[in-house]
Amino acid sequence: MIPRYTRPEMEAIWSPQSRYRIWFEIEAHATDKLAELGVVPASAAKAVWKARDMEFDVARIDEIEREVKHDVIAFLTHLSELVGEEARFVHQGLTSSDVLDTCLAVQLTRASDILLEGMDRVLAALKKRALEHKMTVCIGRSHGIHAEPTTMGLKFARFYAEFARNRERLVRARAEVATCAISGAIGTFANVDPAVEAHVAEKLGLTIEPISTQVIPRDRHANFFAVLGLIASAIENIAVEVRHLQRSEVREAQEYFSPGQKGSSAMPHKRNPILTENLTGLARLVRSAVTPAMENVALWHERDISHSSVERGIGPDATVHLDFALHRTASMIEGLIVHADRCRENLEAHGGIHNSQRVLLALTQAGASREDSYRLVQRNGMKTWDEGGRLADHLKADAEVTALLSPEQIDACFDEAYHLKHVDTIFARVFG
């Protein structure tokens, strides 16, 4: 975790104290059920809960681990120091993976809840700006080249729809990763009753893992991190669009530039798209977790720990970075400045060539073949590109065109409203 890109709400989930607290709850709830089943004394279960309000000594646990070379054993040893003799009944029939995997499930579900809050903020910002700029006309671009008119509102609506899909994916991924495994060595329940697993799952808000071997199947986690990668890509999709729109030659939108803010250390006139460039980089970091998560699926037999070191890194890093990126994205969208006048200026910059398809269709309707129609429009379009002027005027000066279309029919092809007649339809589909 990099402090610069870490919000305290998400950091807390991955802190050692939080991790040990979850481990404690798993062990304590398991001991409760073991006592109910008569496996351990009721007094032992009661004794464990004495640690409920205690702070775990992280330094002490680290000290023990340096000797025993096992993190769960180190924790259990420290727990016995807090609880006393009856701590010997803790962890009866469990294996370390029961604790570690169930803990990770809790952490990922809690992280998901925070990420969903961030996504909701992004969605709210996108919807607000979409409605605000529903009819702010701008040029649409294909391959970066002027194509046909669209609206800024439709750009925001498109991103909204993508984020809405990703929110649904995250909800499903959260549910899929929220499983509990308390099945003992190799996952056979030989030394721990399945009722213990069911009890712990209920107490922690998880579901039981149908079959876990000694570890929870990692396809669940691979899917989870893949969804995080998709959300990161959606963020980058917005970021790249804003970066392009902020270029000096375009200047249709720009990130908010606060009073006192500096752009370049050398050039005082600069207003750089630093937020969206940062978001592009953060998206790369989040996506870097996807492939390792996929590779974690294939483990040896009933257990190995090749996935462990990976998840200790990607679990905190991917969720922390995505959490920060979501709130930065929302803030950027909320403050984004849209230059409607510049949108209009760019739209009209090339003599109306963006209406070429409209003329093409009119010529075919007037009886020309598609090939001839294309040739006539392209000829006049290229003249407009190369020599300037207006496409409508070049068309009116072309005898082959005017043999098929009257000046009034040509002018009708340059009606802006034609391109915008279904904006309401699209908005109804996206926003209901």
Structure in words:
With 432 residues, this protein is mainly α. It has 3 domains: 1-92, Orthogonal Bundle (Fumarase C, Chain B, domain 1), CATH 1.10.275.10; 93-259 and 267-344, Fumarase C, Chain A, domain 2; 353-413, Ribonucleotide Reductase Protein R1, domain 1 (Orthogonal Bundle), CATH 1.10.40.30. 64% of the residues lie in helices and 5% in strands. It is built from 20 helices and 6 strands. It has helices at residues 8-13, 16-36, 42-48, 58-68, 71-83, 96-132, 152-177, 194-204, 219-246, 274-287, 290-295, 306-335, 340-347, 356-365, 370-387, 391-396, 399-402, 407-412, 417-420, 423-431; strands at 137-142, 145-151, 179-180, 207-208, 253-254, 337-338. The strands form 3 sheets. It has a two-stranded antiparallel sheet. Strand 1 and strand 2 (145-151) form a beta hairpin. It is elongated, with a radius of gyration of 30 Å. The relative contact order is 0.11. The model has no long low-confidence stretch (mean pLDDT 96).
Briefly characterize the structure:
The protein contains 20 helices and 6 strands.
| CATH H-level homologous superfamily name of the largest domain | Fumarase/aspartase (Central domain)
**CATH topology value of the largest domain:** Fumarase C, Chain A, domain 2
Count of DSSP H/I helices: 20
Mean pLDDT comes to 96
Query: Shape from CA axes?
Result: elongated
What is this structure's SSE topology?
Layout: H1 8-13, H2 16-36, H3 42-48, H4 58-68, H5 71-83, H6 96-132, E1 137-142, E2 145-151, H7 152-177, E3 179-180, H8 194-204, E4 207-208, H9 219-246, E5 253-254, H10 274-287, H11 290-295, H12 306-335, E6 337-338, H13 340-347, H14 356-365, H15 370-387, H16 391-396, H17 399-402, H18 407-412, H19 417-420, H20 423-431
Parallel strand pairs: 3-4
Antiparallel strand pairs: 1-2, 5-6
Helix pairs in contact: 2-3, 2-6, 2-8, 4-5, 6-7, 6-12, 7-9, 7-20, 9-10, 9-12, 10-12, 14-15
